[in-house]
Structure formats: C-alpha cells, structure tokens
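Table S2 (continued). Query chain:
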Amino acid sequence: MGSKPCKQCPFRRGSLPGYLGENRVGDFVQAAMGDSKMPCHSTIDYEDPKWMSKFLAGKRGTQCRGRAIFQANNCKLPRDREVLRLESDCKLVFSTPQEFAEYHANQSYLEER
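Corresponding output:
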C-alpha cells in the first residue's frame, strides 16, 4: 500500500485541477477533515450500489493515503483508530483546505466559511 497517494489523488499537488468527481470542493474538504474512513477513489467501483458498505466492511478498496497526509498536514488526528494515519508531507500534499480549494478552482469553500 505504501505511504504516498496515487498520482491522481485530489489531495496531491500536481493532480488534475477540479478532479473531484461529482463533489463540490467544500463538501470534499469537510469529508476529508472528518473522522470516518475515506476510500481511495482508484480502488472503488462507484457503479456498485453497495460500494460504501463493502468498503467500510474492509471487503473492497483501500483508504485514501492523500487524505491521511492532508489530515496530518492540518494537525488533524481522527478519533476512529481504524482511520488511516500517515506522516505530514506538505511538499507532496496540499497544506490547508484553502490551498486545496484554490487549486481546484472552486472558491465556494472559502466563501462559505
């Protein structure tokens, strides 16, 4: 699994700007700073209607490494001990929610706060 995010990870610097699936940047950041598991988008079949229950049960997909680093970059320690935790790396992954929002060219997160 490693400790680096996949190359397409939205939390990774140099990823495709605006690549957040159907999510708004504010909702994405709110989920990223939460305490529950977040799947790596490249390991999930989103067309499967049971993808979330399979992921939470540990039967499909892996946790997002970019999100784990993003949380560390923001001094966020998830309450759930099953949530992936990795070391901070501000060179590879965005440092703040504002930086993430600006990169993905959606200012709604900044305006809502």
